[in-house]
UniProtKB/TrEMBL annotation:
Alphabetized UniProt keyword annotations: Metal-binding, Zinc, Zinc-finger
Residue ranges occupied by any Zinc finger DksA/TraR C4-type domain in the UniProt entry: 93-122
Keyword hit for Cytoplasm: no
Record keyword Cell inner membrane present: no
Official protein name in the record: TraR/DksA C4-type zinc finger protein
InterPro entries reported for this sequence: Znf_DskA_TraR
Gene3D superfamilies registered for this protein in UniProt: DksA, coiled-coil domain
dksA C4-type zinc-finger residues: 97-121
Amino acid sequence: MAEERQRYSDSDLKEFKELIQQKIEKAEKDLMLIRESFINDQNNGTDDTSPTFKAFEEGAETLSKEQNAILAGRQEKFVRDLKNALIRIENKTYGICRVTGKLIGKDRLRAVPHATLSIEAKNMQR
C-alpha cells in the first residue's frame, strides 16, 4: 500500500496564500519605491560647491545608486520566490521540504513564507 504524501490541509494552504499575497503586495510597493529612488536623479545644486565636496557627493551618489540596484535585485528575487510559493500552493506541494520531504513547520513558513527547506535540511547544509 503506497503511503500518501503528507501535505498541509486546504484551509492551511488558504491561510498561507493570503499571507503570501499580502507580502507580495508590500514587496512590490517597496520595489517600486526603490526603483523610483534609483531613477530619480535629483541634483541638489552642487555646482557652486568646492571641487573636493563635489567629488565626495558624486562618490556617495554612485554608492547610493549601487546600493539601490542591489536592493532592487534582492526585492525582485523576493517577489519571484513568493510567486513561486503561490504556484506550490496551487500544486498542493507548498510547505513540503524539498530535501527531507517532511512538512516545514508552520512557524517557519509564517516567518519565511517562501521557504523550501525545513530547519533540519537547512542545518544539514552547514
